[in-house]
Write a structure and sequence with these properties.
With 175 residues, the protein is mostly helical. It has helices at residues 23-43, 59-82, 93-98, 107-127, 130-133, 149-174, and strands at 136-139, 145-148. The radius of gyration is 16 Å and the shape is globular.
Length: 175
């Protein structure tokens, strides 16, 4: 397992760059993105459960996935602060959908659960010391390498902001 070179700039096609995120940005940006995603979820009406294309998730599925990301990454980062070089289990994002785990989700339930999951993640992040944020764990996405707790926290932020854009695009396509 390797750690990306310090000069390597990772960026998503959405413009997110992990290395540019500062610790003081994590909580307010997650809070803003969760609030915005919950607003889209609550106001999307019948579009919430509709997939605009078979290969694209619905607003409800993206919100459910974001909830699960916060819970999964939260547990991974706690383990990284306790164990040396842990290899936590993956999220299994596609398998969750294939298993029908999101089929029973409702807008009201996911609205509440997303808020709670975001809050739990932010409370955990605020408790981390600079030393804990620099601890490492194996992270399999987007490529299998060792990552810091700070990178993992930035990844949770990225997932939320990226999927906020997805749900906004879905809502725009539905109206």
């Amino acid at each position: 397992m390797t750690t990306p070179a310090p000069t390597e700039r990772e960026a998503c096609d959405c413009g997110f760059e992990w290395a540019l995120i500062q610790p003081e940005e994590i909580v307010p940006r997650i809070d803003a993105a969760v609030t915005a995603m919950r607003q889209v979820l609550r106001t999307s009406g019948p579009a919430a459960g509709h997939r605009p294309r078979p290969e694209r998730w619905s607003i409800l599925e993206y919100a459910s996935h974001t909830r699960d990301v916060f819970l999964n990454v939260r547990d991974r980062l706690i383990v990284a602060c306790v164990e040396d070089n842990p290899v936590p289990p993956p999220l299994y994002r596609e398998q969750r959908v294939d298993m029908g785990l999101y089929e029973r989700d409702t807008v009201n339930d996911v609205d509440t659960e997303l808020r709670v999951a975001g809050e739990l993640f932010c409370k955990m992040f605020q408790a981390f010391t600079p030393e804990q944020r620099s601890r490492e764990l194996f992270y399999g996405y987007p490529t299998p390498v060792m990552r810091t707790v700070m990178w993992g926290s930035s990844q949770a932020l990225h997932e939320c902001e990226h999927h906020l854009a997805d749900v906004e695009e879905n809502l725009s396509a539905a109206t």
